[in-house]
Amino acid sequence: MRAEPMKTTSPIIETRSHTLLVAPGFPDYEVLDAGDGLKLERLGDVVISRQCAQAFWPRALPEGEWTRAHATHFRTDNGPGAWTTTRKVRPAWPIRCGDLHFEMRLTEFGHIGMFAEQQVQWGDITARLLEKPESRVLNLFAYTGGSTLAAGLGKARVTHVDAVKGVVSWARANATATGLEAAPIRWIVDDAPTFVAREVRREVRYDGIILDPPTFGRAPTGAVWKIESDLVPMLANCERLLSDDPGFVLLSAHTPGVTAATLENLLGPLLEKRGGRLEAGEMVHRVTASKSVIPAGVYCRWTPR
To answer: For 31-88, where are the alpha helices, taking DSSP H only?
Structure first.
């Protein structure tokens, strides 16, 4: 018996096949090699090695190239991890991504102060906002401010929210280095879900919202964040914060097991009544030694057209 084709209805929101969004790279950053659970990166004139669980294929470069790294990050059983250095590394050093300036640091968690895979997103944010100057943009879990800087260059009025005071200070330093010290940016040290709920009560509205939530987090106030239980109610509140004529919502994630389809399933029904379109996909870096790509997170972007 021949099966009948499945009948479907067209969604209000237009979707398309998931995109492989390849970060083009820039002079101050490249992934030199990846494999055996690690990646080898160059940040300006500093080479580092750190964990990358998804890169479990064989390395392309010989061991001798990896041992030339200035610093290597190791996870520990009773803490976030530590760096071992074979060559002197400054406490902080500058790099540049187009018009954005960042200060690099080696943190105990293995972070460096920038998620370079967001490079394409930063360009898109600036371009969209330049078409609509004075837009109000909310950047949540904003870290060291890459998207904040991009929005600032787009002439937006930005609210930057992160729960860690030191990280917000780091972001402000990046803004100053980028020439945005006088830009209309509000720097907020707060737990993101708490801040969003407060803005809903205040009936504040934003023309663009950016979120890059962690898998797990604990704010200095003691508030605990778990993406699987806390993201859905927070996104519902974010939808309430959108203005009558919003420009975009950008959601990205780096949580193992969270795919582009996951993010599409989260944003699609929430924004369906607004129409528009979704673009979802995987962010990747090119690997210099092998010409392959390395996974670096997923994203979903809603736009009104």
So the answer is: 63-66
Q: Does a structural domain hold residue 119?
A: yes
Please give the Cα distance from 276 to 305 (Å, whole number): 5
Give the structural domain span for 141: 19-27+91-303
- Among the listed residues 132, 139, 136, the one whose alpha carbon sits nearest the alpha carbon of residue 160: 139
Kindly report the pTM of this predicted structure: 0.92
* H helix count then E strand count, the chain: 7, 17
Q: Is the dihedral of CA 84, 89, 91, 93 positive or negative?
A: negative
CB 201 within 8 A of CB 241: no
Q: How far apart are CA 123 and CA 133, in angstroms?
A: 15
- Per residue in 226-282, pLDDT (tens digit) is 999 999 999 999 999 999 999 999 999 999 999 999 999 999 999 999 999 999 999
Residue 42 forms part of a structural domain:
no
| Alpha helices, DSSP H, located in 98-145 | 119-130
- In this structure, what CATH number is given to the domain that contains residue 292? 3.40.50.150
From CA 152, how far away is CA 86, in angstroms rounded? 38
Number of domains in the chain: 1
C-alpha 42/C-alpha 19 separation (Å) is: 26
77 found inside a domain:
no
For residue 275, which phi and psi values (nearest 5 degrees)? Answer: 70, -145
Q: Please check whether residue 81 lies inside any domain of the structure.
A: no
